[in-house]
Every structure is written in C-alpha cells, then in structure tokens.
Design brief:
- The protein is mostly beta strands and about 240 residues long.
- The chain has one domain: Porin (Beta Barrel).
- It has one helix and ten strands, in the order H-E-E-E-E-E-E-E-E-E-E.
- It is elongated.
- The chain starts with a helix and ends with a strand.
- About 25% of the residues are buried.
Length: about 240
C-alpha cells in the first residue's frame, strides 16, 4: 500500500507540473511579474566537471587528467536591463577533484615510485561570475536563453604559498583564476517560482600552475601552461 500511495502522489505531482508547463495558456501566478522587476534574487545548485588543458615545452607524452563529478551551490542577483537582457551576479562555492597521471617517461634516469606518477588535485573555488543573460520572448511557460560573461575564482585549496612542492608530494596552483563563460538554458514558469536548468562551459584565461623549485622537475618542468576548463550543469530557482 505504501508503494501504491507513493506512485499515486508522484503521478499527481507529474500531472500538475505537466499542466503548468505544457498548457497553451500562460501560468497566472506569483512569478508572472518577476521578469518586470528591476532587481530579483534566487539561488542555484548543480554539478560540475573540471578538466585541465596543458601546453608543453617539449613534445612528450600528455599528462592525463582523470575527472570526477563535483557539486556546487550559490546565490543569484539579477538586474533587468530590458525585456531581453539581464545582468547577473552568481557567486557560488564549487567543489571538485582532478587526478593527474604522469607517464613514466617523465622520470627517466630518476628513482621514483608509483605515488610519484599520480597527483590528486582537490579544489574548492569561490566562483564569482558577472554575466549577461539574453532571452527570447516568452512563449506560454517557456523562455530559452543564452548566457555569457567573465568570472573570477578564488581557489581555497591552491597551496600557492606552501614552500613545499612536488618533491614532497605537494602540487600547487595559483590562488586566483580568471575565466570566460558561455552557456544556454530554458526558463520554466511554474506556479510559485521560475525554474531554469542550464549548461555552461568555463575556460580559464591565465596559467594556473605553480612551478617547483627545480626547473627540471618531472611534474612541472615541461608544462608551458596549465588552464582549467569545465562544464557546469545548473538548476536555478527564482
């Protein structure tokens, strides 16, 4: 009986949501005028997948990046410019882990063990983007949009000021990273709030690696530039 009750409730909830989204009539509710407000607020949560793009001094085997799925959440401040454009500030906290796998060729002529071939890079970013959101005209209860802009991220796990380096197992990155971002999504107008799923790509503009004291370090010596790139999947509520 418990499973049947849950199934019935789920079907009723789905029917109610479907009626709001797919009806040919616009939902008349408390969010009808949200797009006309000069300033509005909300929050977001979602998932992220960060990667590194490497450029090398010499043509050797690539450093492989093992990506994981991270989590993030944050707040939204939205300023209406006109019917089609909004200026948005979306500060958030992002958690992610990347594992760097080095080829044995980087350690030729050196003593090393298996732990030297792997570097775990855990990052906690305070990410602050300034974005322009460009929307189409609302059609019933949908409104597609694209979003783009620039951002700054403070890496709380950077180890930039740590005097130890990879020779004792410490992989270091710069504290501050600058990005450009671009993405797209859809605003869904529901009974009590506006729900907006979106996907966004982020691309670092500066070199993030902090090099080891040894210029011939197998971990950093051949790296000309290391830059973050990533994908965000956001679920926004306003």
């Amino acid at each position: 009986m418990k499973h049947i009750a849950i199934l019935i409730i789920s079907l009723l909830a789905f029917q109610s949501t479907s009626a709001q989204l797919f009806t040919k009539e616009r939902v008349a509710n408390s969010v009808d005028n949200i797009d006309m407000k000069p300033l509005s607020w909300g929050y977001f949560l979602g998932f992220n997948s960060y990667d590194f793009k490497f450029q090398y001094n010499e043509n050797r085997e690539d450093i492989l990046v093992d990506k994981t799925t991270g989590f993030h959440l944050g707040l939204i401040g939205d300023v209406r410019i006109n019917d089609y454009f909004n200026l948005r500030l979306e500060p958030g906290v992002f958690f992610t882990t990347r594992n760097l796998q080095y080829s044995e060729s980087y350690f030729q002529g050196m003593e090393y063990n298996n732990s030297d071939l792997l570097r775990e890079v855990k990052s906690t970013y305070v990410h602050i983007p300034l974005l322009i959101k460009a929307s189409t005209k609302r059609v019933n209860n949908f409104k597609p949009f694209i979003v783009g802009g620039v951002s700054m991220a403070l890496n709380l796990s950077s180890n930039q000021d740590n005097p130890d380096d990879n020779s004792v197992g410490e992989f270091r990155m710069t504290k501050t990273t600058y990005f450009y971002e671009i993405g797209f999504g859809i605003d869904f107008y529901l009974l009590y709030f506006k729900f907006s799923p979106s996907i966004r790509g982020v691309f670092a503009m500066n070199d993030e690696i902090v090099r080891d004291a040894d210029p011939n370090s197998p971990w950093t010596g051949n790296v000309a530039k290391m830059q973050t790139r990533g994908i965000f999947i956001n679920f926004t509520f306003q």
